[in-house]
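Changelog-adjacent note: as of this version, every example in the card shows the full chain rather than a window. The one below runs 207 residues end to end.
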Amino acid sequence: MGALVYPSFGFPNIYVKANEEKNLSVDYSKFNKEITKNNADTLFQTALTTEDKDKQAQYLKNAAAQYYILSNFDKSDSYPCIQLARIYDLQKNDAYAKAYFYRVLGLNYKDAEANFYFAEFYYTRKQYKKALEYYHNALNYGRKDDAPTMKKIGQIYERFGDIPRANQYYKKSFELNPQDAELSGKINENIIKEYEKSGYYKRRLRN
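Full-length structure tokens:
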């Protein structure tokens, strides 16, 4: 994984209460922003790929510490806050995840990445109406040619029983990513479902 550069102090700080954080006196200018970001991203990606739950938890905790430092370099930089929200999402800490998502969207409600990952947050919790709202925001504010976003919207409409609209988004996603074999089969399956529900198909059965 390569050498990782950690801050020289322990970082339970990331988990302390907000009023305690105000009393911390850390000179963030002493940290190298690029190295800190690379460390954080490496830790986060490693956490996503490891199957060992204990190691994953430690990677996420260390990544959170690095992203927390980044969030104090530039308060207007949304990236570290989005990453912190994603980490808290994975840790099932809903309150903190939502707080960071709202922090980003409060500064810029058109942030496409924040909207997308907030949608993912709600999708994994089966709150599909909220997820759909944020996926559409992501499309409108910068992910209009993004196959994964289109696919997730299609999946939600299919769950709602709106097969024509689901197929509409599946087809858009497939056009952007024709290597997705699952989508090809899903589109054909949904076409058959729609045909079987049609009046023409029912008339054929009666005849």
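Structural remarks: The chain has two domains: 31-125, 145-207.
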